[in-house]
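Structural prep section.
Before we set up the soaks we want a predicted structure of the protein with adenosine-5'-triphosphate in place, mainly to decide which crystallisation condition to try first. Input record follows.
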Amino acid sequence: MIHIKDLTKIYRVPKQNKKKSLRNFLFPVYEDKIAVDNISFDVEEAEIIGFVGTNGAGKTTTIKMLSGILTPTSGKIIVNGYIPYKNRNELSKNIAVIMGQKSVMFYDIPVIESFKFYKDVYSISINDYKKRMELFLDKLELSNILNIPVRKLSLGQKMRCEIAVSLLHNPKILFLDEPTIGLDIIAKHKILDFFTYLNKEFNTTIFLTTHDIADIDKICKRIIIIDKGIIRYDGAIKELKDRDQYKIIEIMHEKDYNLEKILDGFKKEILVSEEYKTTIKVVKQDVGNVVNNLINNPKIVDFNINALSLESVLQEIYLNDQGELL
Ligand SMILES: Nc1ncnc2c1ncn2[C@@H]1O[C@H](COP(=O)(O)OP(=O)(O)OP(=O)(O)O)[C@@H](O)[C@H]1O
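Run finished without errors. Recording the tokens verbatim:
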């Protein structure tokens, strides 16, 4: 569905010059800024990919190249059989790009007018339009808001409408850039459940970029980590979590317990310390022995062993800067 090989995007930016002279203003010197550096990956039909990275990693630039908004500096890129920057019109019939902070609807008029407009833009038949609207009314609960002007909608309502309008033409691929930004947990889950539904029901391929790692953990099996324009990891989320060398142990205990004494000799980090509950992080190899000590101690009431959350795993990757992970 998506094929990218050795893809690079270099921006030409004016070189920062501390000296503010007329010469520098009239004849600026430029330098190259490598935003995406020789990346390669493939995405199969009906996959849901999480594309993550810190600020400035190259995510939006990649999505813009995938959707034909930007022309790559070099490399190969094919999306649904098209070269995006050459066949943007054809490609747009098969994809949707949803950016959490950008709107495609008309601000001052009722929501339904935007739907009618895009029905004509995409030349959608009356029958297909009715079917799609039924789906949106049902799954995104739009029935009570279609006649309200966009500017009067809450952020959650607006986002549900944005998504529905962008999906009127039943695209095969969705490029999502921060689709749940600013939403409360209920609105967020509704939207994520809807994406999962589209994926199952219509085999829609989903390419999701977000800073909200919980979103990725909820709906993606595969994750691509990009860092300073370079792909650091491309694989299963489960494998990434399994590679992690730590476990989290949540210990329920009596008030007067002594952790140092119970776990004497083990390297541990205390993450949360409460009166009757303490959460610690220990290396995987020590878990067996730590558990032994906990079981044999009368001050310990109960305990749970958990893997690190995807968010913590990624945090460690970014912080440790371990280089190539692949
Ligand atoms: N139009 C542009 N001109 C020059 N440099 C740009 C342009 N757009 C992005 N960049 C630079 O390219 C790099 C990658 O930016 P990009 O927006 O793709 O990152 P990102 O991963 O989407 O970041 P964020 O999560 O902050 O949105 C950054 O260093 C950014 O400053």
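Observations: The chain is about 35% helix and 30% strand.
Flagged for discussion at group meeting.
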